[in-house]
Amino acid sequence: DGGITQSPKYLFRKEGQNVTLSCEQNLNHDAMYWYRQDPGQGLRLIYYSQIVNDFQKGDIAEGYSVSREKKESFPLTVTSAQKNPTAFYLCASSAERSINTGELFFGEGSRLTVL
Amino acid sequence: SQQGEEDPQALSIQEGENATMNCSYKTSINNLQWYRQNSGRGLVHLILIRSNEREKHSGRLRVTLDTSKKSSSLLITASRAADTASYFCATISGSEKLVFGKGTKLTVNP
Questions:
Q1: CA B7 to chain centre
Q2: What's the burial of B10, exposed, middle or buried (CB within 10 Å: 0-12/13-18/19+)?
Q3: Nearest CA among B47, B57, B61 for reference residue B19
């Protein structure tokens, strides 16, 4: 089945630790995105990548880092510099490099809790 | 930077009734999309309407777009308990980024 797989689904972290959230897609999509969702809020864009080995900061990139070494994979690292990391993280992809022309496909999300 | 604002924030109806959600935005757009999110899950794309379109249908969904009023509405007809979810509008306005509203939480009571 084609789709986007995020792991882990739930993650607990102690303050000061870096954690990496995995996002893999087998849809052969060029563009991939990371969003953060807080309770009762919309989605805010963290980073996006339109092509392998290239990525751009979104609206709330501080305290996060990404890589795009393979078309299928777009991992997100939440660093200790992120002051309020507890949130629901969503990865998405789109077939077109420009999402002016199409829809986003989302994974099931990863819920990060800082203890 | 929030572009779309959904209204109402929450809506509770009985099964079989119609549900209408609205989205207002501030700047001109290329297209507007509606997504559904079941609790604790990812978002699912419902429908995309382009700036030169006024209405689109998909099954029990009807979306309208009024660019002069900078608003869109999503109508779900003959609602079912399984339609219980949050519904988000998302807009593109020139940049490569899709901007989401805060969503409308719909509860359909059996």
A1: 10
A2: exposed
A3: B61
The residue written with tokens 């779309």 in the block is B4
- Supply the DSSP string of A26-62, one letter for each residue: -S--SEEEEEEE-TT--EEEEEEEEETTEEEE-TT-T
Contact A42 B33 (CB under 8 A): no
Judge whether A42 and B2 are in contact, CB under 8 Å: yes
Instruction: Please name the member of B1, B42, B92 whose beta carbon is closest to the beta carbon of A90.
Output: B42
Length of chain A: 115
Reported as a single tens digit per residue, the pLDDT across B30-80 is 889 999 999 999 999 999 999 999 999 999 999 999 999 999 999 999 999
Tokens 């919309």 identify what position? A42
The closest CB to that of A42, out of B42, B44, B101, belongs to: B101
> Nearest CA to A43 among B25, B88, B74, B70?
B88
For A27-74, write each residue's pLDDT tens digit. 999 999 999 999 878 899 999 998 999 999 999 999 999 999 999 999
